[in-house]
Each structure stands twice: as C-alpha cells, then as structure tokens.
Amino acid sequence: MQKITPFLWFDDNAEEAMTFYTSIFKDSKIVDRRPSPDGKMLTGTFELAGQQFMALNGGPAFRFTEAISFFVSCKTQEEVDELWGKLSAGGEESQCGWLKDKFGLSWQIIPEALGELLADPDPEKAGRVMQAMLQMGKIDVRKLEEAYAGA
C-alpha cells in the first residue's frame, strides 16, 4: 500500500464515482468495497493509472472545492481531448485546463507540452504561451505552439 492515499468524501454515490473514474483511466480498477451496517457501500478503494484512492459515502456534510484538484499530465492532444470530454460530461468546464466532473471533483487536464513551452528561457515566448493558455478552457497544444512561435 502506498504511504499517502487521497481519501474522497462523497454524499452517497462513491461507488458510482469509482466505477466512473475506473472506466476513464487506463490501468485502473476497483480494489474493494466495504459495506456499512445497512449493506450499502460505506468505503471503497480504487486505482487510477496505478494511483490508489479511497472513497467514502459520508453524507452531505462536505463538498469538493477547487482547493483540491487532480492534475493529469497528458502526452498528446488526443489524450487531453478524450479525458476532457469524459470527465467534463455532466460537470462543468472552467479555464486553463480545469474542469469539475459530475461529482464536483476538480481536475486539471494538462498536456506535457504546456510545461515545456512555459519553461522556455525566452520570456517573450513563454509569456505568449501563458497569455494563450489564459484564454483557453480545454488546453489546445496547436494554439500554444502558434503563440510560442509568434503566429
């Protein structure tokens, strides 16, 4: 077991969330479900791309906020597009690669190219990339590259 595991508090749909998330990410699975005295799932453990998470049906006392998000590093625009489409379905899109899924959990769907372009030692190129990114919801690598090139 990993030393630190994100623990997610859901109202009463933790099992639905686990099934949803494991259907989206490769190399993912539901590890276990533990029942409450009434037989419904109380807690569960699942893995997304090798990262383990725990989920709790804790009731409506707490909600997710943008103060916590999951940063997903994507190798290609196709991966960005796929994850963005699946995770934002029934949720809400935001700016700069951020979205909330249908459970209210925040995600950052970020292409590796963004970090590479922002790290350029030329402040003008990196600045153009930053300005382009600030105008986006879902990150578009082609538009970032155009901004980098000054196009």
* Poorly predicted segments: none
The tally of structural domains comes to 2
Average pLDDT level: 97
Helix content: 25-40%
Helical run tally: 5
Termini separation:
48 Å
What is the CATH class of the largest domain? Alpha Beta
- Gross morphology: elongated
CATH fold topology of the largest domain: 2,3-Dihydroxybiphenyl 1,2-Dioxygenase, domain 1
CATH architecture of the largest domain: Roll
Radius of gyration of CA atoms, rounded to a whole number = 18 Å
Major sheet attributes: 4 strands, mixed
Based on secondary structure, the structural category is alpha/beta
> Strand share of the residues?
25-35%
Write down the secondary-structure element order. EHEEEEHEEEHHH
Strand line-up in the sheet with most strands? 1-4-3-2
